[in-house]
Amino acid sequence: MAGAESKSFSSPDETREFKGKGRAEVLVVNGRTVSKATFEPGWKWSVNLRPIAQTDSCQVEHFGYVLSGRMRVVMDDGMQFEVGPDDLFALPPGHDAEVIGDETCVLVDFGQVQSYAKPPGP
């Protein structure tokens, strides 16, 4: 069993800047990667992260909790939904997303975020 460990997003292990309008602060605690992502108004995955991911849609599995703001998610099959403050969500690979409105969207993601917002390796 892993030992006790505590970290704070005020001193993240890594900060991954998006191509404008936000960033992901990343912590690794007992081998588990968690991110706190900040998406500014006007952020859209297909504009601000597609150039980093180099995929047609987001291929990361997310499991998160929204702290503030709102986001619309559009799955590759056309299904859409919105998340906002106090919402918990599970999101499989194959989606686009965008901030709705003028408020920054902040969420904590416990999903498969080890490589989220990182350029693909050689």
Automatic annotation (TrEMBL):
Residues 60-109 form the Cupin type-2 domain. Residues 1-22 are annotated as: Disordered. It holds the Pfam family Cupin_2. It comes from the Bacteria. Residues 13-22 have a biased composition (Basic and acidic residues). This is Cupin domain-containing protein.
